[in-house]
Design a protein that fits this description.
The structure holds two protein chains of two kinds.
Chain A: E1 4-9, E2 15-16, E3 20-25, H1 31-40, E4 44-48, H2 59-70, E5 74-81, H3 89-98, E6 103-107, H4 114-133, E7 137-141, E8 146-151, H5 156-175, E9 179-182, H6 192-198, H7 202-218, H8 231-235, H9 241-250, E10 257-261, E11 263-264, E12 267-268, E13 276-279, H10 285-295, E14 299-304, E15 316-320, E16 332-333, H11 344-359, H12 381-388
Parallel strand pairs in A: 3-4, 3-5, 5-6, 8-9, 8-14, 9-13, 10-13, 14-15, 15-16
Antiparallel strand pairs in A: 1-2, 1-7, 11-12
Helix pairs in contact in A: 1-4, 2-3, 2-10, 5-9, 5-11, 6-7
Chain B: E1 3-7, E2 14-17, E3 26-31, E4 36-41, E5 51-53, E6 62-65, E7 68-73, E8 82-83, E9 88-89, H1 97-106
Chain lengths: 392, 112
């Protein structure tokens, strides 16, 4: 594996593998205007807050939007708001400006409405793209790489092929000095004892167990059953809940867990030193992409049966072990494990080879299509109050 | 064609079938390095993606897959038997009995 990648060095010292301009529509009603600007200016990606233009517990979303803007793959940002909502665009712009990132703001009502804002927006976005083109590319140590790890669209092949292969790749990345972060704590119910042993301190072990329990409560309001196993899972070969969870756990490798990063209305915890991390990143695919973006990940490894998820800020490398579902959307085919023609280590090498190319600028299988969705996700603050009203 | 199964960790007492195996079929077991571990005879039909006991497992012994305990045997499991809901229980949250019945029926698992 390589020790360096070709990175875009940002003013705050971070390094990205892409050089995107982010158009941030902080009110849902600014989405169309953001799209109209993007049609005229390439290299722009859009994030829209489709929730509401009010706060009301929306601070977590605001922090994710700020985190997305701070992501090292983002060279600069154009922030759009309508002008009648509560979310103050200055609050989102300030941390980006503080990080030395070029930021422009347009408030649609103040800018005489839609057409005028689109015209100005195109000019500002073009300026930002021109500025981004000046950003120096330099060799960056692998220790500055943060890789998100996620599974989805899982099937029988995931636990045998793609998750173990990515797990080995994650171990190799951590050993080389890089950082990896996985989330979906709800999928780790039953793995608490193993995870506790991997935690670097008892405090991290306790935090980990508490956050998994929180996630179980969140998706299992008293009076309902938590969905753990389907009959389809069992017919496919999964015997117990822990077997299912361990399949998901596999992709996190075996290295010590440095911390569990919280995503709260107060802020988003960031990795403080290289290593393996867990996070509160959602198990919902689209939401996880934005969580990884907000954590500062430059790239995501995604294990799957078939294909599906993508993110405009953080390129997603799709790894599948299901020969019948390998299409041109899949970046790494590890179905050789299922056919007994390839070892897990060989498959892990394939994953790392692909990662090496993507962090040096090669596009992922669908990145060039230019379209990827993003979902902003936040916990329901009323439910948070409810689950924390009980003793932990 | 030879039926193969993969044993993901040295300590495992089960291997996962990489294609369907019929009753009394010889299964070649490989490890995660794709090295041959040995040949085993199935005692019953075991579908793709399911697990086969690599040696006799006593009642109450843990089932180990990929280096981890994934549950406990509820009775003695002879080598070559399907290791699944009919002879294993979770140490955490069990599948309800009526669902286990449905799984056994749907998969036509021989329980004797």
């Amino acid at each position: 594996m390589k020790q360096h990648f070709q990175g875009y060095r940002r003013a705050n010292g971070q390094a990205g593998i892409r050089n995107h301009i982010l158009i941030l529509a902080i009110d849902e009603c600014a989405e169309g205007i953001a799209q109209a600007i993007r049609q005229k200016v390439s290299d722009c990606v859009i994030v829209t807050n489709h929730y509401t233009c009010m706060y009301g517990g929306n601070e977590e979303l605001v922090n994710i939007m700020i985190g997305a803007g701070l992501n090292p793959n983002v060279a600069g940002a154009l922030i759009l708001n309508m002008g009648c909502g509560s979310i103050d665009p200055a609050l989102i712009a300030a941390p980006l400006e503080q990080a030395g990132k070029p930021v422009r703001r347009l408030s649609i009502i103040k800018n005489n409405g839609t057409r005028q804002t689109i015209r100005q927006g195109i000019e500002l976005a073009q300026e930002l793209v021109a500025q981004a083109a000046e950003v120096p590319v330099e060799p960056v140590s692998i220790s500055e790489l943060l890789v998100g790890v996620k599974c989805g669209g899982s099937d029988t092949s995931s636990g045998i092929a793609s998750n173990p292969a990515v797990g080995r790749a994650v171990d190799a990345l951590v050993d080389a000095g890089a950082s990896c972060v996985a989330g979906e704590l709800i999928e780790l119910i039953g793995c608490e004892d193993i995870l506790r042993q991997r935690a670097v301190t008892p405090a991290v072990a306790d935090k980990l167990e508490r956050l998994i329990l929180d996630e179980e409560r969140r998706w299992h309001v008293p009076g309902t059953e938590v969905e753990t196993m389907s009959i389809g899972n069992s017919v496919g070969g999964l015997t117990t809940l822990e077997e299912k969870a361990l399949g998901a756990l596999h992709k996190t490798g075996t290295r010590p867990i440095q911390d569990v990063l919280r995503i709260t209305p107060q802020g988003i915890e960031q990795p403080q030193a290289p290593g393996m991390y867990l996070s509160e990143t959602s198990h919902l695919c689209g939401a996880s992409g934005m969580h990884f973006a907000a954590l500062g990940a430059q790239v995501i490894l995604w294990t799957t049966g078939g294909a599906g998820f993508s993110n405009p800020i953080v390129p997603v490398i799709r790894v599948s072990g299901n020969a019948s579902l390998i299409t041109e959307d899949i970046d790494v085919d590890v179905s050789g494990i299922m056919a007994a023609t390839q070892s897990v280590d060989q498959a892990a090498d394939q994953v790392l080879d692909c990662l090496d190319r993507v962090i040096d600028g090669e596009q992922t299988a669908i990145e060039e299509v230019g379209f990827a969705y993003c979902s902003l996700y936040q916990k329901d603050q009323r439910l948070e109050t409810l689950i924390h009203s009980q003793p932990v | 064609m030879t039926v193969k199964a993969i044993r993901l960790d040295q300590q495992d007492n089960v291997a996962t079938l990489l294609s369907d195996a019929s009753k009394h079929q010889t299964v070649e077991v490989i490890d995660d390095q794709n090295q041959r571990v040995g040949s085993f005879q199935t005692l019953q039909a075991i579908p793709f993606g399911n697990k086969m006991a690599l040696h006799a497992i006593a009642a109450e012994q843990p089932i180990r897959k990929a280096g981890y305990d994934i549950g406990r045997a509820i009775r003695a499991i002879p080598a070559g038997e399907l290791v699944h809901v009919q002879n294993v229980r979770s140490s955490r949250v069990d599948i309800p009995d009526n669902i286990i019945e449905q799984i056994i029926q749907q998969m036509r698992i021989e329980t004797e």
